[in-house]
Amino acid sequence: MLGALAVAAVAPAMMAIAAAPVAAQEQSSSTAYDWANVRVGGGGFAPGIVFSTLEPGLAYLRTDMGGAYRWDAQKRRWVPLQDGVSEGSYMGIESIAADPVDPGTVYLAAGMGARLPAAIFRSTDRGNHWQVTPAPFAMGGNEDGRGLGERLAVDPSDNRRLFFGSRHQGLWSSADAGAHWQQVAGFPLKGLGLPTVRRQTHGGLSFVVFDPARKGRIFVGNADPAGARLYRSDDGGATWMALPGGPDARLLAAKAVLGRDGMLTMTVNDGIGPNGITRGEVWRLDTANGGWSDVTPLKGADAPEGGYMGVSVSARDPKMITVSTVDRRRPVDTVWLSRDGGRQWEELWPRSTRDVAESPFLDFDGKANFGHWIAGLAIDPFQPDHAAYVTGATVYETQDFDKPGPMRWRPWTRGIEQTAVITLTSPTGGAHLVSGFGDIGGFRHDDFAVSPPRIHLRPFLTNTNTIDYAGRAPLVMVRSGNTHARTVPDTSLAWSADGGGSWSGLHVPACAPRADGSLCPEATGDAAITVSADGTAFLVETDAPQISRDRGATWQRVSGLPSRVRVTADKQDPRRFYAVDFAAGHIVRSDDGGASFRQIAGRGLPADLTPLRSANREDPAPILAQPDRAGALWLALGGALWRSSDFGESWRRTGQAIRVDRFGLGKGAPGSAEPALYALGTKDGLRAIWRSVDGGTQWTRINDDQHQWGLRIRMVSGDPRLFGRVYVATDGRGLITGDPAKGE
Predict the structure, then answer these.
(1) How many whole angstroms separate alpha carbon 726 and alpha carbon 724?
(2) pLDDT for 206-217, tens place per residue?
(3) What is the phi-psi region of residue 393: left when phi exceeds 0, alpha when psi lies from -120 to 50, beta otherwise?
(4) What is the chain's alpha carbon radius of gyration, rounded to the nearest angstrom?
(5) Do 451 and 406 belong together in one domain?
(6) I need a surface site. Which of 301, 628, 666, 734 has the fewest CB within 10 A?
(7) Which residues contact 607 (CB under 8 A, 6 or more apart)?
(8) At 613, is the pLDDT very low, low, confident or very high (cuts 50, 70, 90)?
(9) Which Gene3D superfamilies match (predicted)?
(10) 577: in domain
(11) Within 13 A of 232's CA, how many CA atoms are on the CB side?
């Protein structure tokens, strides 16, 4: 990436892709698979929604870690547009721009963070195929400020000209539909440069708006502290002027929209969001005479804390404008509607209802409220009754926006699966899949085509970090997790007697105070939990690991087991548990049902087991136990795959042809004694999802170039009851399930 002062034109290679970058031709055999999402519906933050102004029923949605989507009006569902992307950073969409001249052309500004790859995607067939140009400027599609925008805009008088307002490196332009970019030398703000502190970002230039009624006129908003809030060019970007007046200079420009009456409506706040905004305003600029008007719906000392972000104007009636609040926690975030250009406002929350039958998890703690992080808001330009807004958990739409009476909102999410899946398990009985998600806890999935009726509750943990089931009593399950608070309010542990349908909390004895004042792992959600093969014993990895044989009524300390290791229970033998002692560098095993552990030989393993160490509570346990055979163990060490058939006493390496990142086990092929192995790994230079049916000697690729999901994959697992079935936990595109294509 170029620094903040770079001004030379950049001409990176342009890459043609079909629904995403095409990987090199397969160098290994492959098995065709059919892939589908396990349905949840929405689930994450989609910072921006854009309707085409040329084609009825055409809309685009950008998400912060799950790529972009297009609304297919005929099929009545959202279509993911980047499933073929193999670069994970490209799944964080900084901005989206629908061409104002050609309805088939659309652009994405894609890049997850300042230090990660960024690119401009261009499609002339509504996102079915893309041309991708690596960008010379940094993006932050999953950073603070991702609700600002839109930063990318197409000139309506010359639709090969694009402008992009970057976070760190000023204003950029392209004269050839995004193939080449150069910094706009005449723009007065050159940017603050790339951040020097981890997790720091800049708001930068928050939006670019062209005036379709006046060729060469462009407006650019500024969300950095220095400089004016709004700049204008009347000569196509050659020269610029700061527009005087308007909002308090301490407030930062967030979003803007220009009506056909020449009025520009802009939201400004004291932060870039999506969190941390305490004050905001709404202003309108008469672009004909330069006059400003403060049209903030609620102002003054009694105004509730929070700001304003989303903004839209009706294409049919420019006096009909709408804005959304952000971070207004009391009483609730809402949408405001004005029919007279902002002189009078109606708050829509009081007369709105929400029917969340398609995504019932939204009602998990009572009736779903209006939402939070309402950064994106849009009125359909062809249907003023139709409007939509985004939240941190879903996208809502209504067909009552321009009607009196109750306003009914429903999730507009069919086809959208924008979630981070932390963990999953496929037990030997009960539901075939039980999941652990970030932010929305997780589910038991009885029907993959239906959003689950219940979220994991009692306790509700926003993140589920570990799930385990008893191999010989699979309806007995345990889980651990955390909340967004520093400490978990009640307990971070739970167990289920019905395969994850309902849960009961588990409470371990309070830990002794730590000398350094840090918190105990069970208080923060860092303590993982494991269940024995017969479902009678729960082992929790507290500072001093503890075990209960009476469903948490009493606990005993486990001897010989270090703290903060990940324990694996044998799936057939309830006496056996396994772990890696990272400090001592060897395998330990329990032969007495988890009461005590001792070192075992571990013959054949490398002497250095430190690559297995992890302090991340979301990482899976390093040792996997084969569901159908006692003492059959697998582990991946430094990319190499190892197996044991004698309870960990001896190990041999397999899978020399592949370097494994993540792996899981499934039911073996018909007539085979070997489990099916599934892995995210690299073979012959190709990173992909692979399957082996012969114990790891030979591997075939099972995904393809159209199904890569940014290769942002946290877990891969087979199904112990269905040969060929594989589950993929993605970080942004939800839960994926795959089955061999018919005839395979």
Answers:
(1) 6
(2) 999 999 999 999
(3) alpha
(4) 27
(5) no
(6) 301
(7) 585
(8) confident
(9) YVTN repeat-like/Quinoprotein amine dehydrogenase (2.130.10.10)
(10) yes
(11) 13
**Is 326 in contact with 408 (CB distance < 8 Å)?**
no
Q: Does residue 303 lie in a domain region?
A: yes
* Distances in whole angstroms, Cα of residue 501 to Cα of each of 428, 449, 516: 16, 18, 39
Residue 313 host element (H or E):
strand 307-313
558 and 650 in a single domain? The answer is yes
Query: Has residue 688 been placed in a domain?
Result: no
Bridge partners for 51 per DSSP = 59
The half-sphere exposure of 316 on its side-chain side, counting CA atoms within 13 A, is 10
pLDDT digits (tens, 9 = 90+) for 559-588: 999 988 999 999 999 999 999 998 888 999
Mean pLDDT, the chain, whole residue set: 94
Together in a domain, 315 and 443: no
Which of 64, 573, 619, 705 is labelled catalytic? 64
CATH number, domain containing residue 216: 2.130.10.10
Question: For residues 737 and 40, is the Cβ–Cβ distance under 8 A?
Answer: no
Confirm if 402 and 445 have CB atoms less than 8 A apart.
no
Q: Are residues 128 and 42 in the same domain?
A: yes
In angstroms, the CA 121 to CA 624 distance is 40
Q: Which of 654, 685, 700 corresponds to the end of one domain?
A: 654
Q: Does the annotation mark 385 as catalytic?
A: no
Q: How many Å apart are CA 437 and CA 422, to the nearest integer?
A: 5
CA dihedral 392, 395, 396, 402 (to 10 degrees): 110
Rounded Cα distance, 12 and 304, in Å: 48
Q: Which domain holds residue 318?
A: 15-194+201-411
In a domain, residue 113? The reply is yes
Closest C-alpha among 341, 354, 348, 350 to residue 325: 348
H or E element at residue 521: helix 521-524
439 flagged as catalytic: yes
Q: What phi and psi values does residue 521 have, to the nearest 5 degrees?
A: -65, -30
Measured distance CA(588)–CA(597) in Å, rounded? 6
Amino acid at 37: N
* pLDDT, position 582: 86
Instruction: Work out whether strand 407-411 and strand 352-354 pair parallel, antiparallel, or are unpaired.
Output: parallel
User: 129 and 188 share a domain?
Assistant: yes
Examine the fold and report which residue of 654, 671, 696 is the final residue of a domain before the chain moves on: 654
Rounded to the nearest 5 degrees, what angle is found at the Cα of 151, between the Cα atoms of 118 and 322?
140
Number of domains in the chain: 2
Whether 386 and 468 share a structural domain? no
